[in-house]
Amino acid sequence: MNKSRFVLRWMVLLWLAGLGLSSAASAEISVSDDSGRSLELTAPAHRIVSLAPHVTELLYAVGAGNFIVGAVEYSDYPEAAKKIPRVGSGAGLDIEAIVALHPDLVVAWQSGNPSWQVDRLASLGIPVFLTEPRHLDDIAGLLEKLGKLAGADSAGKAATDFRRHLMQLRARYSGRETVSVFYQILDNSLLTVNGRHVISDVIQLCGGQNVYAALPGLTPRVDIEAVLRENPEVILASGYEPLWPEWRNRWRALPMLSASAHQNLFLIPPDLIHRHSPRILDGAERICAAFEQARSKRKISVNH
């Protein structure tokens, strides 16, 4: 056994001993995560490690932000989150740093964190809760579950406020004329989202039809020729904002594309749509407004 592995095992044993855990302990808190796995805790978690920016936002939203002892890069909202020690990035997690924080709960992102590293944390006896919302309603459920795990009193209000905002958007935009949409994750290889992605649910909420809803994989790759064949009425883009003018000009150079011909090219701030947190409804507001602009241009074209 190498020194690093020995130190890690020693740290885990001390941590478990300090918690006073035993197989006979009865669980006081029990929830199911987004993978369907049941997670049980003997007491509310007050040393939480967040492995995704949206998880950090969710925890703050339910009033458990002060319990976060470690987070990954780009966990920058709210402002207080910037001060949390970092334990990894999109490239991977620092397992030893996470264990050294003695967490009583790790909240991970099923499709965003390396599965083998998440499994490694679980194998060390650390409770792991997986998030993977596929629909907007799932986010309200996550707020309630994370609030229960952390013993946070604000979770009920946060979930209620989210559902109320969502209902208002549904009431306002239900029945609107359908708009065909290509959602572009700003990338040279033209990544998009399929119908099982929560972003596609946002598009549908606003009366849009994701032209690539039927593709396999949550974030499939397409090409310019494929987009031209689909000829969407609207192109939504997100990602690294300074790159948007370059991408917008590339689409404008294709006037045979409906979205380009009608100038229906819209940028959505990534933090408002890529993060599965309450702020996604702020992103939805912008998307719905963009679709309304596209619909209004139909009327102008008819009148002319």
What's this, in brief?
The protein has 304 residues and is α/β, with parallel strands linked by helices. Helices cover 42% and strands 15% of the residues. α6 runs parallel beside α11 (280-303).
Secondary-structure map with pairings?
Layout: H1 3-19, E1 29-32, E2 38-41, E3 48-50, H2 53-61, E4 68-71, E5 88-89, E6 92-93, H3 95-100, E7 105-109, H4 115-123, E8 128-131, H5 136-150, H6 155-173, E9 179-185, H7 198-205, E10 208-210, H8 224-230, E11 234-238, H9 244-252, H10 258-261, E12 265-267, H11 280-303
Structure write-up:
This protein has helices at residues 3-19, 53-61, 95-100, 115-123, 136-150, 155-173, 198-205, 224-230, 244-252, 258-261, 280-303, and strands at residues 29-32, 38-41, 48-50, 68-71, 88-89, 92-93, 105-109, 128-131, 179-185, 208-210, 234-238, 265-267. By secondary structure, it is α/β, with parallel strands linked by helices. The protein folds into 2 domains: 3-161, 3-Layer(aba) Sandwich (Rossmann fold), CATH 3.40.50.1980; 175-303, Rossmann fold (3-Layer(aba) Sandwich), CATH 3.40.50. The strands form 4 sheets. The protein has a 4-stranded parallel beta sheet with strand order 4-3-7-8, with helices on both faces. A 4-stranded parallel beta sheet has the order 10-9-11-12, with helices on both faces. It has a two-stranded antiparallel sheet with strand order 1-2. The termini are far apart.
